[in-house]
Specification:
about 270 residues, mainly alpha, about 80% helix, about 0% strand
């Protein structure tokens, strides 16, 4: 067997092949070690921010409650927030702390992802991806601000119109908002809008790898309009305010995505 190996593979080639396999294995193990290190760091950062946010969870809760408080401050009713389970408020503070921790830690987590990916990229690829790392949290923040400052106040006022005063033959219909339900609603909307606002990032990345182009996006505009409002109906409560509030910005972002894809195509043609 040894004589046969010597005839087929000279000794130098066998050693070279073994060295290459050993280098590949070492490189693979190194990548896994680096990935584990980045994940551990991200989890540690998230945990630290969670502890900090839990300490200030009542202040964060009051901040998230402000749209409701501002919407009802001028009426004559004695408004209050209620909870119907003994542990409900505690669970709400945990949710608020975790939500705020993800929101604050997301730029650091994205930085850890960048540090893991960047060494394997060429210089031009790094320049191409860096704007997306900046655009992702920025667009998420814009989506959250739209919910907090515009959509939630309008939606609250819309829902409050269904209250009825006390009459002779009927009882009044008055909102007594639950702590958990209100916080779950506003946090869900912030995440829904924030993730939906990543549409330009997604379409631009698909254009860079050649899956789509500007003409493709233009031809399918009418289908996209239907899809956008269907998604808006799934992600938001069943009311026209929040659905239109998500649908229209997404349509604007889709049109901006077409423009960004055109710029990418021009750069490719000039390169």
């Amino acid at each position: 067997m040894k004589l046969l190996l010597k005839k087929i593979f000279p000794k130098e080639k066998i050693i070279k092949k073994m060295n290459e396999e050993s280098t590949k294995q070492t490189s693979f193990v190194g990548h896994l070690t680096e990935l584990r290190s980045r994940l551990v760091k991200s989890i540690i950062y998230l945990f630290v921010f969670f502890i900090i946010c839990y300490i200030f969870s009542e202040s964060i809760y009051n901040f998230l409650l402000a749209p409701y408080a501002d919407a009802v401050k001028n009426d004559d009713l004695n408004r209050r927030m209620i909870f119907t389970a003994l542990h409900e408020t505690f669970i709400v503070y945990l949710k608020v702390a975790f939500f705020a921790a993800i929101f604050v830690a997301s730029p650091i987590i994205l930085t850890q992802v960048w540090k893991f990916v960047a060494p394997g990229l060429y210089k031009n690829e790094k320049k191409a991806l860096l704007p997306y790392l900046i655009a992702t949290p920025t667009l998420f923040l814009l989506g959250g601000m739209l919910v907090y400052y515009l959509i939630m106040p309008l939606a609250i006022k819309f829902f409050l119109t269904f209250e009825t005063p006390e009459q002779i033959n009927s009882l009044p219909i008055q909102l007594e908002a639950k702590v958990n339900e209100y916080l779950s609603l506003i946090m869900r909307l912030i995440f829904a809008f924030g993730i939906s606002f990543q549409l330009p990032v997604l379409l631009s990345l698909l254009a860079r790898v050649g899956f789509i182009n500007s003409e493709y996006l233009k031809k399918r505009r009418k289908y996209v309009i239907v899809i956008i409002f269907a998604v808006a109906a799934l992600l938001t409560p069943p009311d026209p305010i929040t659905q239109i509030g998500l649908g229209i910005p997404l349509l604007i972002l889709y049109e901006l995505s077409i423009l960004s894809v055109k710029l990418i195509e021009k750069k490719k043609n000039n390169a």
